[in-house]
Design goal:
This protein has about 850 residues and is of the alpha+beta class. Helices cover about 50% and strands about 10% of the residues. A five-stranded antiparallel sheet has the order 26-25-24-23-27.
Length: about 850
């Protein structure tokens, strides 16, 4: 078997099909799936296939796509890149085990991200992705890339180890030594023979080094086979480079590997050549595609009444906690640190005041802020203008807003990372991978599987999570604890509420995590209106519809006591919540809340517009029993005294003798000032004193203007006659109108910008538009048809789209990537800027060689956007 697998490594490669052909061949459903998996390309929606391919080749976009692959997807990518695309399925089966169907199952999510694809039993790679993998992702590199950086003495030692009896001496040149090593590394049988010659400890150590290819799959730094410090890591896990360990108990085995030439010393550091890794994989039964792990059933029955009651209680607690937090912030803005966020001292005060666990508070603060209900103002953190609307909505909608805000958060509220050595207090947004861990954990477990089992296998479903094992365990625990507090999970089981969250998001036409991130980090401060617009609005509506019946009903009655207190069990309904917020002071929170009525609280209700009769009517409507007589007396007594003293807003007072005041009040031209007599010799209005004086002058009177202390104000006018009262008023009105218009225009412009930035194109709509231009009309319209025909005569193997792309690059000085086979049959990928077509040759600037080069058109095997 091992011999067959080694032989498979020597099979000749088939020529790659065009990536443009692959994209062109996608139907609407497949193209929509690609756009959904690569949603960053929708930020500037492509109009045609050429534009789409350019966006799919963006390095950041491809790295983001790789980041969410599962363990088998990553392993398959590494295998394809090590063998060198294109790779027949049968070669991958021999290397990774299983069957063609198993390879296709692992390939499916990778192809959905448009990174690899299968055509006629051969797996191809997008050329920009291949380059990116080699530059940014690959742990191991080909010997041909390593050899130029190896010192001659190290090359001689490797040559002697790889080819026993080779005539390599201390006088052998670098070039001959490099040729011996390069030729041996290019021969899988020779590498396999060198591995077989190793003593067992060295062979086991070498196999251990390459067994977990992208850290491979944990994202962690595994236990180092060469002891601490022997091998470093890259961003994807275990690295192939490290320093020889001093004093390691495996030092002897490591030394044998270096002497054998299977480990190469590059600048004093160790590299495992890709050719060695490929041979070891072929012989290692542990490097195989496994398929998704089997997960045990959930720990509880979701239909059980006790379980459902516990979930309902948790959801009610979440609603009460956020409502209590926002009510307290409405009463007194929450103190903010200078750098932003709510510090530990203020959180401790809130925990005491609201009777909440201090460890929970960061969750409620982060969720309220992410949902746009809490924002920083001049005096601290206070409820936004959206808070009354949220408070007044039904229980399903209130919970849906909180649950979605939490589910889509980047950070873990109850286990925040330290950012650049500094604690980031809530609700400051924090770039973190905890949100991906949370979403993967819950979506994996939501179809009735065990949360603990999903957590133990999380490294298979999300290998590139970016945490070491202790950190990952903390993030998993935090996600489960937060889910329990919100009623999303309990007893190792995702609840019906949690399943609804996962299903609603999975069915969304557009993945909302990107929009949530833009909302959370956006400017100005996010609001609930922003949270529920675009793709998020329909999600809130659907989740509220599905979850409303399973949530605790708002309490519809309160118990009024003779000691002037009110007790409400559960979450008060909107009418009771509004009454208590305006007319009472909260004393305790919990499963049952208590409020107290005082003279000051009743006066506050009258101040905001309640009448005594309205207060009593609402108290009677919401009370389980009759309103206590003491409370009725309190309301009546405060109402009787309320308004006895009045403070009137006055901007200007006109002072004169009584006869003149009578004349002013009787003058028709001055009626628009709305002057009111305050005393026989005093009249007042809301206009500015200067405006009043101008109007009096226009009416034939001679007033002077005084300041608030009674001192006459003298104004020096610029040259020219004074304006008439009517002109002055008209000018002032015009000025105010202009300012208002400018303000309105600015506001509208801001809103428009925000609206445009918040617009998210649906993948299905973009797919239909691209398919309408399937023939590549975008590039065809820019390409000279005569050049397209000439390229077709020179190289009939190029597709029409490829010829159009190359012709457009010639006409417009654009960069393209070509797959080129030279006269020595060496196949390379070149990034070129075509300059001129000279007969059958393409004069271009080659970015690989950084020089002007000519390429025979007949030898170009493929063309993609640069």
């Amino acid at each position: 078997m091992a011999g067959r697998r080694a032989a498979a490594l020597r099979e000749p490669r088939r020529s790659a099909d065009s990536y443009l052909d692959f994209v062109q061949g996608l139907d609407e459903a497949a193209l929509t799936a690609v756009l959904r998996a690569r949603q960053d390309v929708l930020e500037d929606p492509p109009r045609g296939v050429g534009e789409l391919v350019r966006l799919l080749g963006d390095a950041d976009s491809m790295l983001a796509a790789v980041n969410d692959l599962d363990r088998d997807g990553l392993l398959l990518c590494d295998a394809v890149m090590m063998l060198g695309p294109p790779v027949p399925l049968d070669r991958l089966v021999l290397l990774l085990g299983g069957s063609r169907d198993g390879i296709r199952a692992a390939l499916r999510p990778v192809a959905r991200r448009a990174l690899l694809w299968e055509s006629d039993g051969v797996v191809h790679a997008f050329e920009p992705f291949r380059r990116l993998w080699d530059d940014e992702v690959a742990v191991w590199h080909p010997a041909a890339e390593l050899i130029p950086a190896i010192a001659v003495t190290d090359l001689r030692r490797a040559a002697r180890g790889l080819v026993p009896g080779a005539r390599v001496t201390s006088s052998t040149t670098w070039e001959r030594s490099a040729r011996v090593v390069g030729e041996l590394m290019a021969d899988p049988d020779g590498v396999a023979a060198a591995v077989r010659r190793l003593p067992r400890p060295a062979r086991d150590l070498l196999a251990e080094l390459v067994r977990d290819p992208t850290g491979l799959v944990t994202g962690d730094e595994p236990d180092d086979p060469l002891d601490t410090g022997a091998f470093g890591t890259n961003g994807f896990g275990v690295g192939a480079r490290g320093r020889l360990p001093a004093g390691s108990n495996r030092e002897e085995a490591a030394g044998i590997l270096v002497e054998s030439g299977l480990l190469l010393l590059v600048g004093g550091e160790i590299e495992v050549p890709r050719e060695v890794v490929t041979v070891l994989w072929a012989a290692d039964p542990e490097v195989r595609l496994t398929g998704p792990p089997s997960l045990g059933p959930a720990g509880a029955d979701r239909a059980d009444e006790t379980f459902a009651a516990g979930i309902q209680a948790a959801a009610g607690h979440a609603l009460r906690s956020v409502a209590a937090l926002l009510a307290e912030a409405e009463r007194v803005p929450l103190a903010a640190l200078k750098k932003g966020g709510i510090g530990t001292r203020e959180r401790a005060r809130l925990a005491r005041t609201l009777a909440l666990a201090e460890g929970e508070l960061p969750l409620w603060i982060d969720v309220a802020h992410a949902a746009g209900l809490l924002a920083r103002e001049e005096g601290g953190y206070a409820p936004t203008g959206e808070y009354p609307g949220w408070r007044g909505s039904d229980v399903g909608r209130r919970w849906a807003v909180l649950a979605l805000a939490w589910f889509l958060l980047d950070q873990s509220p109850t286990h925040r990372e330290i950012d650049s050595g500094r604690d980031q207090p809530p609700p400051l947004p924090l770039a973190s991978g905890a949100g991906r861990v949370r979403r993967t954990l819950l979506t994996t477990a939501s179809p009735g599987r065990s949360l603990a089992a999903a957590g133990s296998h999380l490294e298979w479903f999300l290998p590139l999570h970016g945490y070491d094992r202790p950190q990952l365990a903390n993030k998993r625990r935090a996600a489960v604890r937060e889910a329990e507090l919100l009623g999303v999970a309990a007893e190792d089981t995702v609840s019906d509420l949690g399943a609804a969250v996962c299903e609603v998001l999975a069915a969304a036409p557009l993945d909302p995590t990107g929009q949530m991130r833009a909302h959370q980090y956006g400017s100005p401060t996010p609001t609930l209106a922003g949270f529920v617009t675009g793709t998020l609005g329909p999600l809130v509506d659907e989740l509220a519809r599905r979850c409303g019946p399973a949530l605790p009903r708002d309490a519809s009655t309160m118990i009024l006591q003779s000691d002037l207190t009110a007790t409400v069990a559960g979450q008060p309904n909107h009418a009771i919540a509004r009454l208590l917020a305006d007319a009472a002071v909260p004393e305790s929170r919990g499963a049952a809340g208590m409020w107290r009525f005082t003279s000051a609280s009743i006066r506050g209700a009258l101040d905001v517009g309640w009448s005594a009769q309205e207060l009593l009517d609402e108290l009677r409507a919401g009370a389980a029993h009759e309103v206590p007589q003491g409370l009725e007396y309190l309301v009546a007594d405060v109402a009787r005294r309320h308004g006895h003293i009045r403070a009137r807003a006055v901007r200007a007072a006109v002072v004169a003798d009584e006869a003149t005041i009578n004349e002013i009040l009787a003058t028709r031209a001055l009626r628009s000032l709305d002057l009111r007599r305050l005393a026989p010799t005093v009249a007042a209005c809301g206009a500015d004193a200067e405006d009043v004086a101008e109007r009096l002058r226009a009416a034939g009177m001679a007033p002077v203007v005084e300041d608030e202390h009674g001192t006459v104000v003298i104004r020096r006018r610029p040259g020219g006659p004074p304006a008439s009262g009517r002109d002055a008023a008209a000018g002032a009105a015009s000025e105010r109108g202009s300012a208002g218009s400018a303000g309105s225009a600015g506001s509208a412009g801001s809103a428009g910008s925000a609206g445009e930035s918040g617009t998210w194109a649906a993948p299905a709509d973009v797919a239909r538009r691209i398919l309408a231009n399937r023939a590549g009309a975008g590039d065809a319209a820019r390409a000279d048809p005569r050049v397209v025909r000439q390229l077709g005569r020179l190289n009939p193997r190029l597709t029409l789209v490829e010829r159009q792309l190359l012709a457009a690059a010639l006409d417009h000085g654009e960069i393209v990537t070509i797959i080129y086979r030279d006269r020595f049959e060496r196949r390379t990928s070149r990034l070129i800027a075509p300059v001129e077509l000279l007969g059958g040759r393409l004069d271009s600037w080659c970015h690989l060689r950084e020089a002007q080069r000519e390429f025979a058109v007949a030898r170009i095997e493929g063309v993609t956007p640069g």
